[in-house]
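Q: Got a minute? One more chain.
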Amino acid sequence: MPSLHVDYKKTRIKQYHKEGQALRTETTINDTRDFAIGRRIENFPELRKIGFAANRRLLDVQRIGHDCFIGEASFQDMQRPVTVDNQRAAALRLADPRVQALLHVLLLFLLVQGTFTHKDVREHLAPLLGKKPSQLSPGQITYDLRRLRLHGLTERIPKTHRDRITAKGLRTAIFYTGPYNRSLRTGLAIISPNAANLQLPMAKYIRAAETAVNKWYQQEKLAA
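A: Always. Here it is, folded:
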Protein backbone atom coordinates (compact mmCIF):
# COMPACT_ATOMS: atom_id res chain seq x y z
CA MET A 1 0.00 0.00 0.00
CA PRO A 2 1.51 3.36 -0.99
CA SER A 3 2.23 5.91 1.73
CA LEU A 4 3.68 9.42 1.90
CA HIS A 5 6.28 10.46 4.49
CA VAL A 6 7.35 14.04 5.19
CA ASP A 7 10.14 14.58 7.71
CA TYR A 8 11.27 17.69 9.57
CA LYS A 9 14.04 17.03 12.11
CA LYS A 10 12.39 14.51 14.50
CA THR A 11 8.86 15.27 13.36
CA ARG A 12 7.09 13.21 10.72
CA ILE A 13 3.90 13.38 8.71
CA LYS A 14 2.64 10.03 7.46
CA GLN A 15 -0.19 9.77 4.97
CA TYR A 16 -1.80 6.56 3.77
CA HIS A 17 -5.14 4.94 2.91
CA LYS A 18 -6.76 3.58 6.06
CA GLU A 19 -8.13 0.12 5.27
CA GLY A 20 -8.19 1.17 1.62
CA GLN A 21 -11.21 3.41 2.23
CA ALA A 22 -10.10 6.79 3.59
CA LEU A 23 -7.02 8.97 3.39
CA ARG A 24 -5.40 9.28 6.82
CA THR A 25 -2.88 11.97 7.68
CA GLU A 26 -0.86 11.62 10.90
CA THR A 27 1.66 14.08 12.32
CA THR A 28 4.01 12.84 15.04
CA ILE A 29 6.16 15.31 16.99
CA ASN A 30 8.90 13.34 18.74
CA ASP A 31 10.86 16.33 20.00
CA THR A 32 8.99 19.48 20.98
CA ARG A 33 12.28 21.40 20.86
CA ASP A 34 12.04 21.24 17.04
CA PHE A 35 9.47 24.05 17.41
CA ALA A 36 11.06 25.87 20.37
CA ILE A 37 8.39 24.49 22.74
CA GLY A 38 8.94 22.81 26.10
CA ARG A 39 7.91 19.26 26.97
CA ARG A 40 5.54 20.08 29.85
CA ILE A 41 1.91 18.98 29.52
CA GLU A 42 0.64 22.57 29.45
CA ASN A 43 2.36 22.97 26.05
CA PHE A 44 0.15 20.32 24.48
CA PRO A 45 -2.45 22.79 23.04
CA GLU A 46 0.33 24.67 21.23
CA LEU A 47 1.74 21.43 19.81
CA ARG A 48 -1.75 20.45 18.75
CA LYS A 49 -2.06 23.69 16.74
CA ILE A 50 1.25 23.00 15.01
CA GLY A 51 0.24 19.45 14.09
CA PHE A 52 -3.14 20.49 12.71
CA ALA A 53 -1.56 23.36 10.76
CA ALA A 54 0.94 20.96 9.16
CA ASN A 55 -1.84 18.55 8.21
CA ARG A 56 -3.98 21.30 6.70
CA ARG A 57 -1.09 22.72 4.74
CA LEU A 58 -0.29 19.36 3.19
CA LEU A 59 -3.95 18.71 2.34
CA ASP A 60 -4.31 22.19 0.85
CA VAL A 61 -1.33 21.59 -1.45
CA GLN A 62 -2.77 18.26 -2.53
CA ARG A 63 -6.21 19.75 -3.08
CA ILE A 64 -4.77 22.51 -5.28
CA GLY A 65 -2.79 19.95 -7.26
CA HIS A 66 -5.89 17.80 -7.73
CA ASP A 67 -7.98 20.81 -8.74
CA CYS A 68 -5.63 21.35 -11.68
CA PHE A 69 -7.13 18.24 -13.26
CA ILE A 70 -10.65 19.46 -12.56
CA GLY A 71 -9.78 22.86 -14.03
CA GLU A 72 -8.24 21.25 -17.10
CA ALA A 73 -11.41 19.26 -17.71
CA SER A 74 -13.58 22.37 -17.30
CA PHE A 75 -11.36 24.32 -19.68
CA GLN A 76 -11.39 21.59 -22.31
CA ASP A 77 -15.18 21.29 -22.05
CA MET A 78 -15.38 24.91 -23.17
CA GLN A 79 -13.11 24.20 -26.13
CA ARG A 80 -15.35 21.46 -27.50
CA PRO A 81 -18.92 21.43 -28.84
CA VAL A 82 -21.57 20.37 -26.34
CA THR A 83 -24.84 18.47 -26.74
CA VAL A 84 -27.65 18.83 -24.20
CA ASP A 85 -31.07 17.22 -24.67
CA ASN A 86 -30.31 16.64 -28.36
CA GLN A 87 -29.39 20.31 -28.80
CA ARG A 88 -25.88 20.94 -30.04
CA ALA A 89 -23.83 24.10 -29.48
CA ALA A 90 -20.42 25.04 -30.81
CA ALA A 91 -17.34 25.41 -28.64
CA LEU A 92 -16.46 28.62 -26.78
CA ARG A 93 -12.78 28.87 -27.69
CA LEU A 94 -10.61 31.13 -25.58
CA ALA A 95 -8.99 33.06 -28.43
CA ASP A 96 -12.15 33.48 -30.49
CA PRO A 97 -12.85 37.26 -30.71
CA ARG A 98 -16.60 36.64 -30.78
CA VAL A 99 -16.43 34.50 -27.63
CA GLN A 100 -14.40 37.18 -25.86
CA ALA A 101 -16.95 39.80 -26.90
CA LEU A 102 -19.86 37.63 -25.69
CA LEU A 103 -18.30 37.15 -22.26
CA HIS A 104 -17.61 40.87 -21.98
CA VAL A 105 -21.32 41.42 -22.64
CA LEU A 106 -22.22 39.00 -19.84
CA LEU A 107 -20.12 40.97 -17.36
CA LEU A 108 -21.69 44.20 -18.60
CA PHE A 109 -25.23 42.94 -17.94
CA LEU A 110 -24.22 41.73 -14.52
CA LEU A 111 -23.40 45.32 -13.59
CA VAL A 112 -26.74 46.63 -14.87
CA GLN A 113 -29.64 44.43 -13.79
CA GLY A 114 -28.41 40.89 -14.14
CA THR A 115 -30.84 39.91 -16.92
CA PHE A 116 -30.86 40.57 -20.65
CA THR A 117 -32.84 40.02 -23.82
CA HIS A 118 -32.01 39.08 -27.39
CA LYS A 119 -32.02 42.79 -28.31
CA ASP A 120 -29.74 43.72 -25.39
CA VAL A 121 -27.09 41.28 -26.57
CA ARG A 122 -27.18 42.55 -30.15
CA GLU A 123 -26.93 46.22 -29.09
CA HIS A 124 -23.85 45.62 -26.94
CA LEU A 125 -22.17 42.83 -28.86
CA ALA A 126 -22.03 44.63 -32.21
CA PRO A 127 -19.70 47.50 -31.10
CA LEU A 128 -17.30 45.00 -29.54
CA LEU A 129 -17.05 43.32 -32.94
CA GLY A 130 -16.64 46.60 -34.79
CA LYS A 131 -20.11 46.39 -36.32
CA LYS A 132 -23.48 48.09 -36.16
CA PRO A 133 -26.36 46.25 -34.43
CA SER A 134 -28.18 46.07 -37.76
CA GLN A 135 -25.30 44.00 -39.15
CA LEU A 136 -26.00 41.16 -36.72
CA SER A 137 -28.96 39.04 -37.70
CA PRO A 138 -31.46 37.62 -35.18
CA GLY A 139 -30.26 34.16 -36.13
CA GLN A 140 -26.67 34.99 -35.16
CA ILE A 141 -27.70 36.24 -31.73
CA THR A 142 -29.95 33.22 -31.17
CA TYR A 143 -26.98 31.00 -32.06
CA ASP A 144 -24.76 32.80 -29.52
CA LEU A 145 -27.38 32.68 -26.77
CA ARG A 146 -27.87 28.96 -27.33
CA ARG A 147 -24.12 28.42 -27.04
CA LEU A 148 -24.02 30.24 -23.73
CA ARG A 149 -27.03 28.39 -22.33
CA LEU A 150 -25.93 24.90 -23.37
CA HIS A 151 -22.47 25.47 -21.93
CA GLY A 152 -24.13 26.45 -18.65
CA LEU A 153 -23.00 30.09 -18.64
CA THR A 154 -26.52 31.53 -18.83
CA GLU A 155 -30.05 30.33 -18.15
CA ARG A 156 -33.50 31.31 -19.37
CA ILE A 157 -35.77 32.88 -16.78
CA PRO A 158 -38.99 30.78 -16.77
CA LYS A 159 -41.99 32.23 -18.59
CA THR A 160 -39.97 35.16 -19.96
CA HIS A 161 -37.78 35.99 -22.95
CA ARG A 162 -34.94 37.09 -20.69
CA ASP A 163 -31.72 35.31 -19.74
CA ARG A 164 -29.38 35.74 -16.81
CA ILE A 165 -25.80 34.81 -16.09
CA THR A 166 -25.13 31.77 -13.88
CA ALA A 167 -22.49 31.42 -11.18
CA LYS A 168 -20.44 29.32 -13.60
CA GLY A 169 -20.94 31.96 -16.28
CA LEU A 170 -19.70 34.76 -14.03
CA ARG A 171 -16.56 32.89 -13.01
CA THR A 172 -15.84 31.74 -16.53
CA ALA A 173 -16.34 35.21 -18.00
CA ILE A 174 -13.97 36.76 -15.45
CA PHE A 175 -11.21 34.20 -15.99
CA TYR A 176 -11.66 34.00 -19.75
CA THR A 177 -11.51 37.74 -20.35
CA GLY A 178 -9.06 38.84 -17.66
CA PRO A 179 -5.97 36.70 -18.43
CA TYR A 180 -6.60 36.91 -22.18
CA ASN A 181 -6.67 40.70 -22.30
CA ARG A 182 -4.25 41.53 -19.50
CA SER A 183 -1.69 38.76 -19.91
CA LEU A 184 -1.83 36.75 -23.12
CA ARG A 185 -2.35 39.49 -25.67
CA THR A 186 -0.16 42.08 -23.97
CA GLY A 187 2.53 39.55 -23.09
CA LEU A 188 2.76 38.16 -26.61
CA ALA A 189 2.95 41.69 -27.98
CA ILE A 190 5.88 42.46 -25.66
CA ILE A 191 7.90 39.35 -26.51
CA SER A 192 7.15 39.47 -30.24
CA PRO A 193 10.23 39.91 -32.50
CA ASN A 194 8.37 42.88 -33.99
CA ALA A 195 7.56 44.46 -30.63
CA ALA A 196 7.32 48.24 -30.65
CA ASN A 197 9.45 48.62 -27.51
CA LEU A 198 12.27 46.09 -27.20
CA GLN A 199 13.59 47.83 -24.06
CA LEU A 200 10.76 46.73 -21.80
CA PRO A 201 12.04 44.48 -18.98
CA MET A 202 9.97 41.47 -20.11
CA ALA A 203 11.28 41.75 -23.67
CA LYS A 204 14.86 41.88 -22.37
CA TYR A 205 14.34 38.86 -20.08
CA ILE A 206 12.89 36.77 -22.91
CA ARG A 207 15.79 37.60 -25.23
CA ALA A 208 18.31 36.83 -22.47
CA ALA A 209 16.66 33.47 -21.77
CA GLU A 210 16.58 32.64 -25.47
CA THR A 211 20.26 33.51 -25.80
CA ALA A 212 21.16 31.37 -22.79
CA VAL A 213 19.23 28.36 -24.12
CA ASN A 214 20.78 28.67 -27.60
CA LYS A 215 24.23 28.92 -26.06
CA TRP A 216 23.63 25.77 -24.06
CA TYR A 217 22.40 23.99 -27.21
CA GLN A 218 25.62 24.94 -28.98
CA GLN A 219 27.78 23.76 -26.09
CA GLU A 220 25.97 20.42 -25.90
CA LYS A 221 25.91 20.12 -29.71
CA LEU A 222 22.12 19.79 -29.74
CA ALA A 223 19.99 20.70 -32.71
CA ALA A 224 17.99 23.90 -32.27
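A: The two ends are 44 Å apart (CA to CA).
Q: Perfect, thanks.
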